[in-house]
Design a protein that fits this description.
Largest sheet: 9 strands, antiparallel
Strand order of the largest sheet: 3-2-1-12-11-10-9-8-7
Strand content: 15-25%
Helix content: 25-40%
Oligomer: single chain
Number of strands: 20
Structural class: alpha+beta
Distance between the termini: 72 Å
CATH architecture of the largest domain: 3-Layer(aba) Sandwich
Length: 495
């Protein structure tokens, strides 16, 4: 049996054991009890611990099968780095182990910091998102795609809807990135590929220009601004911009057909730093993910107000398939019916991914030191195993509001608007509304109890009175009407 075969067999054995552990019925908690026991950390939760074993076995198998150098991962819940680990090697020759402290070029994850910098300046009243770029950078004189195109705005830069070319030059092939002065010189010779806001088109050039907007307005170097206003406030002590770092993982090219990997050189992103120039590690990026879950005003450790965070994370443009798109800096991706925000990155010898599920306040970090590692797939597996287990364990203890007497609200109600019949159905101590518009039964519109016979209408769709209050009117011991937000329907008897 070869070493590779033994490694894969061991990984499969561990995965089987972990799967069995997940499948073992634990002592059932009380109906209203939280998944995590009192005093128990999320990492100590049995389901989370089993999920980390399962994922670890899977990833170890992937590393062995694909001959990957190393991978560092982390799982975040809200303000806590729940679990992190390094796999494989930061350097193959010396067998230096990969750890959660190992640093990587995070590549296009840098764009998230560029978007935050722009939003900070917007909060300070120094720019508007609909400002034409040329208002702040007079040298931004590129040719439009069409004769009647309007000017490219700052928001279009951040949402990948500007129509600009993907790159400023051949730097990914020559390993020679342009300086800021060179970026300015090339602009008059460039022409947009598409008119603004006609389609989603990823552009490193757009983010390089956004970084120069920040420099122009603040009078600071890009690196200095980001260090002072984002990196330091968030306590990201292992993060830097375009600095050779002895803590960097050795960057390896893709594996050749002969099974070898060459080491790639350190590259200074220069004028493209806002698009791709940052270095960080799992622990620091976990702090960055946690910042996305904070509320309240900007200041201190909150680098943006809650409102600006919502703007950054809201979808602004989508690709032709409607499966992927962008907020302001943050990418959106649909995976098996679930929406995640974050960003991927690729740099010579480094591929990275941050991905966040906002509703569950769960995020993951995946950092690798080779170009053929597919961190997006690793992130999906990490979310589907450890991420889902963490989300389940972290759910707060529900308040038992159900009253068996509420079963009297189940029935049929007629709308004065259309004479259609709306049904309220009782399902295992839950009231579900079936509207008269033919909405599928699988689209459950749930009446969430608020107490005192009041409910909130909730559903995955935004149709009808979603989020509004539902209450019932009673006279002489009988339910007569159902109020949904500002409208009402009449109870039907005899059906």
């Amino acid at each position: 049996m070869t070493m590779l075969t033994r490694t894969i067999a061991l990984a499969l054995l561990l995965a089987t054991s972990a799967t069995q552990a997940l499948a073992q019925p634990a002592t059932p908690p009380a109906p209203a009890a939280p998944a995590a026991a009192p005093g128990e950390t999320l990492a100590e939760n049995p389901d989370v611990a089993a999920a980390t074993r399962l994922f670890s076995a899977w990833l170890e198998g992937q590393i062995a099968y694909r001959g990957l150098p190393g991978v560092a991962v982390g799982v975040v819940h809200d303000q806590q780095l729940v679990w992190s680990r390094g796999f494989g090697y930061a350097d193959i020759a010396t067998k230096k182990p990969m750890t959660e402290q190992t640093r990587f070029r995070i590549a296009s994850n840098s764009k998230l910091f560029a978007a935050i910098a722009i939003l900070q300046l917007r909060e300070a009243g120094k720019l508007r998102l609909d400002d034409p770029v040329a208002m702040h950078l007079p040298w931004f004189t590129m040719k439009p795609a069409g004769p009647d195109d309007g000017p490219i705005t700052i928001e279009q830069l951040l949402s990948h809807s500007s129509g600009l070319q993907r790159e400023a030059g051949d730097h990914w092939a020559s390993f020679d990135f342009p300086t800021e002065a060179e970026l300015q010189k090339l602009m008059p010779d460039r022409q947009a590929v598409f008119p603004p806001q006609t389609r989603w088109k990823y552009s490193n050039l757009a983010y390089a220009v956004a970084g120069l907007v920040v420099e122009k307005i603040t009078g600071q170097r890009w690196a200095d601004y980001v260090q002072a206003h984002i990196i330091t406030p968030l306590g990201m002590t292992a993060t830097s911009i375009d600095k050779p770092d002895p803590g960097l993982a050795t960057p390896y090219a893709s594996r050749t057909p002969e099974g070898t990997r060459r080491i790639l050189p350190f590259m200074d992103a220069r004028g493209m730093a806002a698009a791709t120039g940052m270095t960080s590690n799992v622990e620091d990026l976990a702090k960055f993910i946690s910042a996305q879950f904070r509320g309240g005003p900007a200041g201190g450790a909150n680098v943006l107000s809650a409102g600006s965070w919502r703007e950054a994370l809201r979808v602004r443009s989508v690709d032709e398939t409607w499966e992927n798109g962008s907020g302001l800096g943050f990418d959106h991706e649909r995976v098996k019916g679930r929406t995640f925000v974050g960003h991927g990155g690729g740099y010579p010898g480094n591929t990275t991914m941050t991905r966040v599920q906002l509703d569950d306040k769960v995020g993951v970090v995946v950092l690798t030191n080779t170009n053929d590692s597919n961190p997006g797939d690793i992130a999906n597996q990490l979310l589907a195993t450890v991420g889902d287990a963490v989300a389940k364990a972290a759910k707060p203890k529900p308040t038992p509001l159900w009253d068996d007497g509420w079963a009297r609200f189940a029935g049929r109600y007629r709308s004065p608007f259309s004479d259609g019949v709306i049904q309220v159905v009782l399902l295992n101590k839950q009231l579900v509304l079936l509207p008269d518009n033919g909405l599928a039964a699988e689209t459950k519109m749930v009446l969430e109890p608020l107490g005192d016979g009041r409910f909130r209408l909730m559903a995955p769709t935004g149709i009808r009175e979603i989020g509004e209050i539902v209450r019932f009117e009673e006279k002489d011991g009988k339910v007569t009407r159902m109020f949904q937000g500002a409208t009402w329907t009449t109870r039907l008897e005899g059906w």
